[in-house]
Amino acid sequence: MAVDSCGICGGDGRITNSFGNETRCPSCHGTGRRSDEGGLRDVTKTKPSHYRGTNKPGAPPPKAQGPVTFQGVQLANDVQASAHVSNDTKAKLMREIADHEATHGKCTETFIKKVKKQLRSIAPIAR
């Protein structure tokens, strides 16, 4: 009975590269005989568990509607307490405070001074 030898390694079950490294044949897995599977082993991920999810988030996390930090809440209370500012301006300043906290992590002293200066500039001048 004739046994077909492996076409990759020639039947000895070992292959050598140009650097002199020797390893098992990837086709016959070291047996030296031609495999019935034919060729190289398929190592692609074909299980359903490999297709569970992606790294892409489904929806972006919701933005904060108002300030979160202590300084941001105090500044928002100052904005809400000012009687001479319109509701549209109050809403705009509240969004600015929330956006600033989202990008910087906290309300900086410079930002607090800027908002308070805006509140003073909006105040009516008493004559």
UniProtKB/TrEMBL annotation:
Residues 33-45 have a biased composition (Basic and acidic residues). Residues 17-68 are annotated as: Disordered. This is Molecular chaperone DnaJ. It comes from Polyangium spumosum.
